[in-house]
Amino acid sequence: MGAEGAHARIPVVRVLSSHRLPQEAGERRVRRRTIDAARGKWKGILLHLGVEAKFLDNRHGPCPLCGGRDRYRWDNKNGNGTYICGQCGAGNGLQLLMNLKGWDFVTAAREVDDVVGNVDPDPPTREMDDPTRVRLMNKLWQSATPLISGDRAHRYLASRAALPSTIPSCLRSTGWCPAPDGVHRSALLALVSGPDGEPVNIHRTFLGPNGKADMENPRALMPGRIPDGAAIRLFAATGEILGIAEGIETAFAAADRFGIPVWSAMNAAMLAKWTPPAYVREVWIFGDNDAKFGGQAAAFGLAHRLAGRLDLQVQVHVPIEAGHDWADEITHAGKSYRESQEIVPQSQGRNLGKSHAQAEQ
């Protein structure tokens, strides 16, 4: 009986192995050949296959996959057409086509193979060296002025959140700031600090007469890479409790509502990678309620990562209404905090101290 059982199973294993392994090996060979041929040509390939140029400019902006406003960037690392999105994750040029077009691997590889021979190599990118970046950022920062009541930047922030009586020194206003579209505009400038507290970049919010400028992406960082854990330190956080949110406006609104210092991580991708200072023992994460769950994913992803630390207590707060962040709650229908519903805060299950009512007081 044992011998018969062994004979019954052997053909099945042989059939599966002889069918699957060559197919998988063939796909790997096709994938490698396609990627090798396309390396250094991905911008032309993607344009040829219908990807809009605005998604291929190596700047944070709208995501063609999830529709997020500023969590996507096409960085084309090593000429492989790579992208990264705070919600969708990261991938290469082939994966971008598969996700955007709904193609399977074989279809995407075939489409790339059909055009790769007719596409010129991508033009070389001229990276700005670090001394030049620092010089440009210093020049912009020194030409700007502290916010004062009534100027365009102050009016914009005041329309979105309750501001502290003393405006943080990390914020400045300018009427002449270079924008990615080549136009000089008014802007709110925010100094971005690395995990060690040292300045690493400047975040720009471009402004029009009545709010954010009428442009595709009114928020942008200066050129240069930003270390994981960077943030706009809007409050002097020397205690053990610290909040983190995406936008500057959201951080101010959350700080006013909950009575704790809150920093801005600038976007969902940076929020997910943020790390609190060593002295912090309790982190409150204020997520955006995005219709496609990008803000929630970033907030709970950060909470999940930090929850592994035994020295931290972590909780997440997200507005109940889809499409809202905490700044939206201020202007929405004139509701007060008690009147506007809120998702029950999620935590690690430990005693987190302040209740919502206590946080409001």
UniProtKB/TrEMBL annotation:
SUPFAM superfamilies for this protein: Zinc beta-ribbon (SSF57783)
UniProt-listed InterPro entries: DNA_primase_Znf_CHC2, DUF7146, Phage_T7_Gp4_N, TOPRIM_dom
GO biological process: DNA replication, synthesis of primer
Pfam family, any one: Toprim_3
Key word Nucleotidyltransferase present: yes
One Gene Ontology molecular-function label: zinc ion binding
Region (Disordered): 337-361
Keywords in alphabetical order: DNA replication, DNA-directed RNA polymerase, Nucleotidyltransferase, Primosome, Transcription, Transferase
Superkingdom classification of source: Bacteria
Stored SMART domains: Prim_Zn_Ribbon
GO cellular component, as recorded: DNA-directed RNA polymerase complex; primosome complex
Every DNA primase/helicase Gp4 N-terminal Bacteriophage T7-like domain range: 58-94
Name of the protein this chain belongs to: DNA primase/helicase Gp4 N-terminal Bacteriophage T7-like domain-containing protein
